[in-house]
Amino acid sequence: MHGVPGLSELAAGAGLAASFAVGEAPEPREGMRGVALHTADPLAGRRFLVLMTESLAVAALAVPDRTSGLLSVHMSQDPWIVDRIAQYLICRVPPEGSSHRALAPPQAPVAPPAVDDDVEDAETSDRRPGPLDGFAARLRKRRSHTAE
Question: Which of 62, 100, 116, 142 could form a disulfide with 26 if both were Cys (CB 3.0 to 4.6 A apart)?
């Protein structure tokens, strides 16, 4: 995330720009709030991006392939999915002026549409489940329903 060109400019124009990572600095880039994760956090090791503006809602998740190591990128512009992910992330951002450690996950997050999740992420298999688990499967399920 730190090597992405234009990220500081994007963060400067955002109402909230946060970077979640194990060992994240308090301000990894100018205008961006760093949120430090514990290694067992549901978000640890996940590669994701959520953008929400008045006219755009996009969520992207990159899942490494266990055999090739290549990333499979799953994207959604489904406002329901993007909004639920954004709500979860926002509630994990600590208040300004406090520690930059991630707040605890909510006890009862809004449940996504039920699907069978056949996507596993080998690098984070010892984590607790989180809102990004099943994201790729939910997208596939929604696509199959809209194609019918």
Answer: 100
